[in-house]
Amino acid sequence: MESLSFVIPCYRSAQTIVPVLDELEASVAAAGIGDYEVIAVVDGSPDDVAEVLISESKERSYLKVVELSKNYGQINAQMAGFRQAVKDIVVAIDDDGQCPIDRIGDLVAPIVEGRADFVSAQYPAKKQSLFRNIGSEMNQAMARSLVGMPKDFQISNFYAFSQLVNAEVMNFPNPHPYFLGSILQTTSRVMNVPMEERRRLLGTSGYTFKKLISNWLSGFSSFSIKPLRVADVIGALCALSGFLFGLYMIITKLFGIDRLAGYSSIIASIFFVGGVIMILLGLIGEYIGRIMLLLNHTPQYVIRRIVVNGQARDISRSDRRGPLL
Predict the structure, then answer these.
(1) According to the 3-state scheme, what is the secondary structure of 63-89?
(2) Exposure winner among 44, 47, 174, 279, fewest CB in 10 A?
(3) Burial class (CB in 10 A: 0-12, 13-18, 19+), 62
(4) pLDDT tens per residue, range 1-10
């Protein structure tokens, strides 16, 4: 059996991370995996999960704790963990107990057998909120239309990939990475393994609908790109207003209410066309904003400290943050 690197982004999970680590130990032993490591990335969590993990690392030699300087988001935290992974296969799991870790052998088997480079658990029904389901469906639809994701493929929170894929993913410099796009640009050998998702051990998801929309748009920054996205919203509202105004004029005309000839159509056209133009300008602005972030060397993350066996490890300048353009 190949060696495994488990990457766990941690946020508000001080009460759940120890049971997850306990189950992971039992599951890898049952699967006959002797060589593995666990990289727990603390993503600016407001609770004491970092202290819990550091304490656990004194007794669990396989555990490496990577603490980020602030909250960068789940994908960025995973990227920080992927770059620390040194084993043959990298496995991403959640910190809330939802991933069926006891099926780890089934998840990595296609990679071990050489049939796939990237394998994701496929859940018949996701045990998450309506907003999360909407966000997941939006992400899947975008991936199929923009990056060529196979129609029968589904990405979930429990997946594994080879070091071939990881070597390419690590080179992606964008401060707001789109992980699935990187995968599909690297390999076409992707597949699913049917599994049953569990319920969270405690609490609820930290994702709000606003965050899901922001992730779907692939990147958000309050000091640069946010005004461009406001332009998107304004444009959409103007276009909708123009459409509704035109619909209102049609209805009133049908009921015999006379309006000044040409007035309604002109106003509706101005609103609609103006809104569409602002939407397109906002989309162009998204690309310009991404270029600006790259040129400004905006980091994917900044590592505050790395702790192994309860002791802080020296961090080189190149390891402290994501790759630069």
Answers:
(1) EEEEEECCCCCHHHHHHHHHHHCCCCE
(2) 47
(3) middle
(4) 689 999 999 9
pTM for the structure as a whole:
0.78
CA 75 – CA 318 distance, rounded (Å): 19
Which residues in the chain show pLDDT less than 70? Answer: 1, 125-139, 142-143, 145-147, 203-229, 257-264, 324-325
Q: What secondary structure, in 3-state letters, does the chain show?
A: CCCEEEEEEECCCCCCHHHHHHHHHHHHHHCCCCCEEEEEEECCCCCCHHHHHHHHHCCCCCEEEEEECCCCCHHHHHHHHHHHCCCCEEEECCCCCCCCHHHHHHHHHHHHCCCCCEEEEECCCCCCCHHHHHHHHHHHHHHHHHCCCCCCCCCCCCEEEEHHHHHHHCCCCCCCCCHHHHHHHHCCCEEEEECCCCCCCCCCCCCCHHHHHHHHCCCCCCCCCHHHHHHHHHHHHHHHHHHHHHHHHHHHHHCCCCCCCCHHHHHHHHHHHHHHHHHHHHHHHHHHHHHHHHHCCCCCCEEEEEEECCEEECCCHHHHECCCC
Given a contact cutoff of 8 angstroms between Cβ atoms, the answer to whether 214 and 138 are in contact is no
In this structure, the number of other CB atoms found within 10 A of the CB of residue 106 comes to 15
Please list, in sequence order, all residues whose beta carbon lies within 8 angstroms of the beta carbon of residue 254, skipping any fewer than 6 positions away: none
Q: Which residues, at least 6 apart from 135, have a Cβ–Cβ distance to it below 8 Å?
A: 207, 209, 212, 213, 215, 216
**Of 196, 203, 134, 171, the residue nearest 323 (C-alpha):** 171
Going by C-beta distance under 8 Å and a sequence separation of 6 or more, which residues neighbour residue 43? Answer: 9, 10, 11, 68, 71, 72, 73, 74, 76, 77
pLDDT in tens, 212-230: 656 655 544 444 555 666 7
